[in-house]
């Protein structure tokens, strides 16, 4: 390679680096702008939304009336508690059931194993909305409307997590399992002391994404609850917008409160989520 060619290659790499950096910055600003606007709008007075030209920044970030109203005059704290209970219980149950099922698919040999596995994975192609009516009728007949059990029952199992954990467990050598058997290690002990620690990145990634999805779930809790004290945070935010208050600031304050746990999760766990998702798709 001549000097001129090497110089052109360096210039091309430099241009590619700066171009990708600028594009990433622009995309990042586009993505984060709605969150930034929601935070600013939460501090606005109601008249601040009707001004022209519209202003993004509030008159003062010390205007906390919207937050005071949401926290003291509404059931938003109870809604957040409901969402937290649902997200934590469903998260623990989903990881437990998914890892146990994945362990069986990864290490056990039984008739129809592949067919059953592909049947479970095939349910990923069924949109959840298609099951709403049948699930609602089942929950209604069981008398579980307006209960945590009625909300939680559809979130205990995830075909996606079964697939991801099975891929993770398949990376564990079969000879390691045989050696553990020789040393007197049973299936439950091997599952708890070997498989789970090895799959920690996948557990972290899927656990965080599951928590976020359950925290933000809206349609199913709206369908199976009609008591105010059983609503979740996403349903509760929609209730802030009504003809009586007609305050956009209150709605944005509720949105910001709902965003706080998600912002902390993404800020401190982004690397673990990316690493876990990539490590769970190494082996087919």
Short description:
By secondary structure, the chain is an all-alpha fold.
Structural notes for this entry:
- The protein is an all-alpha fold.
- The chain has two domains: 3-41; 65-279, Orthogonal Bundle (MetI-like fold), CATH 1.10.3720.10.
- Helices cover 70% and strands 0% of the residues.
- It is built from 13 helices and no strands.
- It has helices at residues 3-41, 65-72, 76-107, 113-122, 132-141, 148-152, 159-169, 174-182, 187-198, 200-215, 219-224, 233-240, 248-279.
- Helix 1 (3-41) packs antiparallel against helix 13 and helix 3 (76-107) crosses helix 7 (159-169).
- It is flat, with a radius of gyration of 25 Å.
- Residues 280-284 have low confidence and may be disordered.
Number of domains: 2
Helix percentage: 55-70%
Spell the H/E element sequence. HHHHHHHHHHHHH
Outline the biggest β-sheet: none
Number of strands: 0
Question: Which key terms come to mind for this protein?
Answer:
single chain, 284 residues, mainly alpha, MetI-like fold, 2 domains, flat, disordered C terminus
Topology (SSEs and partners):
Layout: H1 3-41, H2 65-72, H3 76-107, H4 113-122, H5 132-141, H6 148-152, H7 159-169, H8 174-182, H9 187-198, H10 200-215, H11 219-224, H12 233-240, H13 248-279
Helix pairs in contact: 1-13, 2-13, 3-7, 3-10, 3-12, 4-7, 10-13, 12-13
